[in-house]
Automatic annotation (TrEMBL):
One of its GO terms (molecular function) is orotidine-5'-phosphate decarboxylase activity. Belongs to the OMP decarboxylase family. Type 1 subfamily. This is Orotidine 5'-phosphate decarboxylase. Residues 3-223 form the Orotidine 5'-phosphate decarboxylase domain.
Length: 232
């Protein structure tokens, strides 16, 4: 069973520290996204890795291939275990990003966002992408695999289909996780932890369900237990 990354969607190191203190003695795997990275920068990411947190650096790089390569060369120096690009940047960009990452890190894994979990079929139509969601996600995942990437970020709902077309060991990192009966917020394609497990997700990203919980530590323990499959 892979990681349960807690999405540290906070604006400052102080807020993160306050939150992580509530989870002590756990040292959870965490996801640092754009908000926190742009607020606190690479030094803070390095601090988290040095404190022993496994870090997924979720910056969703999407640019011309050479810029993606140079960006990943920089991010490879931060000691994170996972980072990502948008598959919509194309296969050449994904190859370039991977090459850049390998210039500075032999171990950081690179995955691609297929479609955001806030995107639904109506939004694809809006974006003038005239295909069914599962076809789009499958195509993007296959391109990521061909580019040599380690996996994709996708909805848990996409995972059963993707498992039939992607190689063994390909990673399916799934956000949009909600405990049964709670708010979807802005997410559209959501699943519970148990469903994600059954569908074949390899890693989870959970943000608000834990960070906004009345008792974050208790919620983390409940969801981690469900994820690891230990009967309560
Ligand atoms: O609060 P919630 O659990 O919805 O947070 C999900 C996190 O996963 C957010 O940080 C969001 O940026 C991220 N994410 C996502 N969908 C993707 C990729 C990343 O929701 N496809």
């Amino acid at each position: 069973m892979g990681q349960l990354y807690i999405a540290l969607d906070f604006q400052s190191a102080a807020e993160v520290e306050q939150f992580l203190n509530q989870l002590a003695p756990y040292r959870p795997a965490v996801k640092v996204g754009m908000e926190l990275y742009y607020a606190e920068g690479p030094a803070f990411v390095r601090r988290l890795t040095e404190q022993g947190h496994a870090v997924f650096l979720d910056l969703k790089v999407h640019d011309i291939p050479e810029t993606a390569r140079r960006t990943m060369r920089v991010l490879g120096q931060l000691g994170v275990e996972l980072t990502n690009v948008h598959a919509a940047g194309g296969e050449a960009m994904m190859r370039a990003a991977l090459a850049g990452l390998r210039e500075t890190s032999p171990t950081t894994r690179l995955i691609a966002v297929t479609q955001l979990t806030s995107t639904d079929q109506a939004m694809l139509t809006d974006l003038m992408i005239p295909h069914a969601m599962d076809q789009v996600v499958t195509h993007y995942a296959q391109q990521a695999e061909q580019a040599g990437l380690d996996g994709v970020v996708c909805s848990a709902l996409d995972t059963p289909t993707l498992k039939t077309v992607c190689r063994t060991g390909f990673q399916f990192v799934t956000p949009g996780i909600r405990p049964a009966g709670t708010e979807a917020d802005d997410q559209k394609r959501i699943a519970t932890v148990m469903d994600a497990r059954q569908y074949g997700a390899t890693d989870l990203v959970i943000g608000r369900a834990i960070t906004q919980a009345a008792d974050p530590k208790q919620m983390y323990e409940i969801l981690l237990t469900q994820w690891k499959g230990i009967k309560q």
